[in-house]
Amino acid sequence: MLRGKLKMVAGDTGKRAALKRLFGMAVLSTGLSACVTGSAPPPAPAVATPAPVAVPKTPKPVRIGLALGGGAARGFAHIGVIKALESQGIVPDIIVGTSAGSVVGAMYAAGNNGFTLQKMALEMDEATISDWSLPLFAKSSGVLKGDALQAYVNRMVGNVPIERLKKPFGAVATDLATGQPILFQRGNTGAAVRASSAVPAVFQPVKINDRQYVDGGLVSPVPVRFAREMGADLVIAVNISQAVEGQSSSGTIDILMQTVSIMGQSINQFELKQADIVIRPDLPNMKSSDFTSRNHAILAGEKAAMALMPELKHKIRQLLER
């Protein structure tokens, strides 16, 4: 009888174990089924993605080139143009000059502002840039040797070579053997300016590296294209050449200067079209040899530049917004 009870207990225990196993399998089956076919757990709350912020476009800097033309004493007008530009916060990045433009351009590229240039101009003695060839007209190809001009320019720029000036600078001269233009961007600043200013029959040709050079005005009276070649995005050209019509030339130097001006007229018409702004100081009665009217020329340059300032600022804005 005891054995029978034990069997029943054992049987009951086995049944319970069997029931537990069946219940566990059912629970597991239900859980798996829920994972496969049942409702998915609620999704995680979406994280709001901020809208992209529009970054303002940084305007590309505009490299302004200043192309200063030739014209001997009329070149003082370049100083007035520089003063006007600076008064409006417009400071050229690249300077290129021909003849008188190379003289002013070199001193400006050396770090002298418009007011300093004006002071230098008013204090300049014409004798400091004039060294007459002796004997006069005898076996020399020019009346002036040019040594004094070279020394004066080097003194004014602190004897710094072109490549070490504070602004990129180029002086345009003409290769006497080939008639081709040359842009000096390295070497002795005074020598390059002297070569650029060597008006035939007025100054002796300048020998540099076994080649002879004369006035750059023969091939590039206002060196706009060279300002472009040096990387200018916008070129301001300053044309100080004399209008050929109505000019009376009585002296030898005046006749020679007018001859150079006549030769450059057709070149100017082509080259000035490549400039963004052309400033023409009003100097109808000033001769190229008139160093006494330097203050008048400076004022004329300032006035001419201010008259075109709205147009110049508009063009600069256009380039900044491109």
UniProtKB/TrEMBL annotation:
Pfam family, one: Patatin
The entry's keywords: Hydrolase, Lipid degradation, Lipid metabolism
Active site: S99, D215
Motif residue range(s): DGA/G: 215-217
Domain PNPLA: start-end pairs: 66-228
Chain ranges for the short sequence motif GXSXG as given in the UniProt record: 97-101
PANTHER family xrefs: NEUROPATHY TARGET ESTERASE/SWISS CHEESE D.MELANOGASTER (PTHR14226), NTE FAMILY PROTEIN RSSA (PTHR14226:SF76)
Protein known as: Exported phospholipase
Natural source organism: Undibacterium squillarum
Lineage: Bacteria, Pseudomonadati, Pseudomonadota, Betaproteobacteria, Burkholderiales
